[in-house]
Amino acid sequence: MSKPVVTKPAFPPRRGWPGRGGGSWPRVEAATEWRGTSGQVCGLYPFSVGSPAPLVGTPLGPHLATGDAVCGDPISWFSKGLIANPSVFILSKPAMGKSTLTIKMLTGAAAMGHIPLVLGDLRPDYIDAIDALGGQVIRLGGGRGTVNPLDPGHATKAARSIGGDAGRALAADAGLRRLDLLVALLTIWRGDTPDRMHRAALERALAVLDERHTDPLPPILDDLLQVLDDAPPSVMAVTGAATPEEYYREIKALRVDLLSLAAGSAFGNMFNGQSSEEMDLDRPAVYDVSATYRSDTSRQAAALLASWTFGFASVEVSNALADAGQAPRRHYLLALDELWRALRVGHGLVDQIDGLTRLNRQDAVGQVFISHTTKDLRSLADASEIAKAKGFVERSGMVIVGALPSSEFEPENLGSILDFSDAERQMVTSWVSPEGWGQDGNHAPPGRGKFLIKVGNRPGIPFAARLTRAEASLRNTNHRWADLQQPKEVSR
């Protein structure tokens, strides 16, 4: 009986021909993946896959859906035309990684030649990172450091060096910032904005002080009080007083408030005397205001506002020197954390902060705003101020949201500023779930370190922030509890 003829299939099976010499292989390796531009890989169709996010800027972490790298920061995306404003607003519940993400952007900015500035570190979260970058730590409050609100900083020297109309404009801007800071500090202390007459009196008194002052050191609040007490004619004129007695009655409340700032009864010794340290324009810097963390909210807001004012003033001087060809062009990335603390304190502060932060595109700086939710911005009493506060988010080139409750997407909150799909809302709200129970301390909340980048009405880019080993060593806000996490041997 003849054997049946076995015909082989025309093509080998999936793992190759079995048997001797067949070349069967039990395990098939995954194909190697390569990354390239559309101009390089267009001929490989259909084996090329489009990337869901631009590979521009600081590496942040893997895409939650594809695993591809997600990169981004406000300066890099603005320079490539991806966003219209070099700023980012980060919103998330506490302890979900906002500061960690900001540190990644700051270190990335430093690696690209930009100068990171942290204008007010309350907890503190950024000191170790700035110190590791060779930066400057300027301490303020709690007996650790003082800032003189009448100190023009680098502006006076730079204005003389530049000269001409540009120098005069820089000096005038410095004078206006000085006045605005004084009015803001008085607003925080009083709870409402000084009236127009008191502001005009302050402005005239500062002008008289500049004419009188001959000391090489800047004037201090005691010097300003002396000018008010002297009742110069130009100051009396704006009060409408006909006699010195009437003048002193008109400025009595203003004088008492200034005396509270000068004597330290308002905000401690933060503004009582000469500035302890001047910011270096060529180095990363952080204003350490952590000494005010356990103080009342007004003292925290005053420290933050002073940090913001002097930080933006230093950037303004740097730009003026560069425009005059007397210094290299520097680009800064400014981080403003705990924005809500200053907004809640007093009526009129929104206008002060709005004026500080509105010119970032012209000033060649990137900005990182950090807050918890837009409800923080809606906690103001005045509807017009609420609209201005929400404008901080609306003007941001990119918005990064972390774990947020479902109420945040209602029309009066973030939902009125950005469009989120149902899938995006479900993803962001799912990150709010609490951490699991466990004894090893490794049960982090599911949303920690997870974020969604939104630019206008584009689909969001979800990613998980990943720290390098060096970055992780700079980000431990629980270091004082480390001895409880590592059991110690007890000698017997």
Give the overall form: elongated
Mean pLDDT over the full residue set: 85
Helix/strand class: alpha/beta
Could you give the order of strands across the largest sheet?
Answer: 5-6-4-7-8-3-9-10-11
What low-confidence regions span 5 or more consecutive residues with pLDDT below 50? 484-492
- What is the ordering of alpha helices and beta strands? HEEHEHEHEHHHHHHHEHEHHEHHEHEEHH
Strand content bin: 5-15%
The biggest sheet, with number of strands, parallel, antiparallel or mixed sense and barrel status, is: 9 strands, mixed
Helix content: 25-40%
Q: Counting H and I runs of at least 4 residues, what is the number of helices?
A: 19
Oligomer: single chain
Radius of gyration of CA atoms, rounded to a whole number: 29 Å
How many beta-strand runs? Answer: 11
**End-to-end Cα distance:** 90 Å
Describe the structure in your own words.
This protein has 492 residues and is an alpha/beta fold. 39% of the residues lie in helices and 11% in strands. It contains 19 helices and 11 strands. The strands form 2 sheets. A 9-stranded mixed beta sheet has the order 5-6-4-7-8-3-9-10-11, with helices on both faces. The protein has a two-stranded antiparallel ribbon with strand order 1-2.
